Amino acid sequence: MAGVNRKISAASARAHTRRAKENTSFKLPSGIFTKILLVLSVGILAWAYQAIQPPLPKTCGSPDGLPVTASRIKLKDGRHLAYKEHGVPRDKAKYKIVFVHGFDCCRHDAVVATTLSLEIVETLGVYIVSFDRPGYGESDPNPRRTVKSMALDIEELADQLGLGSKFYVIGFSMGGQVIWSCLKYIPHRLAGATLVAPVVNYWWSGFPTNLSKEAYHQQLPQDQWTLRVSHYASWLTYWWNTQKWFPSSSVIAHSTDILSSQDKELLPKIVSTRNHRALVRQQGEYESLHRDLNIGFGTWEFSPMDLDNPFPNNEGSVHLWHGDEDRLVPVTLQRYIVQQLPWIHYHELPGAGHMFPHADGMSNNIVKALLVGEKETPS
Predict the structure, then answer these.
(1) Helix, strand or coil for residue 289?
(2) pTM for this entry
(3) Contacts of 216 (CB under 8 A, 6+ apart)
(4) Residues of the chain with pLDDT under 70
């Protein structure tokens, strides 16, 4: 039987080929792109969450922490404060002072104590105790730290060491800022107070907007951003100060760009005394440096400019010392504060930067002004 000839048109052939290709082509499951996008989003969010989470602190004295080498007291809440004593024996002292260290420092950085002349120490009978603020050195971190809690820690330290019903306080830089808290929350315990180049919070109520804004913009751009993050988005402080994409705090980086001429002259002297530098951040930077930023530049419960005179009968005095060439803390803000608080004895030092307490004879002047009323400044 003969075969049947079939003629296939060109159009039919093309249609047949197209259907064959369609039947053999790979098809993605419905909604796959949405699922991929979702997975990528979750991954990015997980990475971001990890990036902003600070590591756990290496608490001194804990099983996996660093050894304790300092004298310490145990506070009511279970935390420990490490301290160091200077000057005459505590039970022989006429004047007892609690010194509060600055940012990125520890109990060994008690400049007023370490540079005070032996003559003044013995003649006046001066005892000074310095301590590691929470998270620094060998003092336990305080995750619940507030502006108020620091003053209460100082009060408890004084009580456990038996400093009496009244004692003096001196704070330098970020430690000077803590003295405002003492004047607010424990004024009844103070015999006198000195703020040395105290750090200023640009968001304190009471500053004229144009004045605080002008002072704020005197800071380096990366420092403006560091403070902005600490104030408005404290949960990002760890990430901001550890990321490598943008420059962060010049203070944490120990940049000399923020130092005055006098500061740079004093720098070799300061560096030569800081053989304990590794001790400062040994428990981690978050609970020391970063929490300092969050508290110091966060929202405060009060403004120093609203404080009342703690010594209305002149039974004590409050002093504020500042250099007019301080490039870390603009002098214009200190001038405004003391204008609002005329009961403060203000000492402005021409040509001085932020590190002026390290200058020869400066600690003598600061201590004598507080204890016996001498207001000498170095020539």
Answers:
(1) helix
(2) 0.86
(3) 202, 224, 227
(4) 1-30, 33, 35-52, 374-379
Q: Among all chains, which residue has been given the structure tokens 């950085």?
A: 109
Contact 154, 179 (CB under 8 A): no
Average pLDDT, the chain: 89
β-bridge pairing 126-131 and 95-100: parallel
Q: Give CATH superfamily name and number for 72-372.
A: Alpha/Beta hydrolase fold, catalytic domain (3.40.50.1820)
Concatenated DSSP letters of 32-100: HHHHHHHHHHHHHHHHHHHHHSPPPP--TTSTTSPPP-SEEEE-TTS-EEEEEEEES-GGG-SEEEEEE
Q: In the chain, what percentage of residues exceed pLDDT 70?
A: 85
CB 320 within 8 A of CB 347: yes
Q: Which of 304, 134, 121 is nearest to 204 (CA)?
A: 304
Which stretches of the chain are DSSP H helices? Answer: 10-24, 32-52, 111-114, 118-124, 147-160, 174-185, 209-216, 221-232, 237-242, 261-272, 277-280, 291-296, 331-340, 362-371
311-347 pLDDT, tens digit per residue, is 999 999 999 999 999 999 999 999 999 999 999 999 9
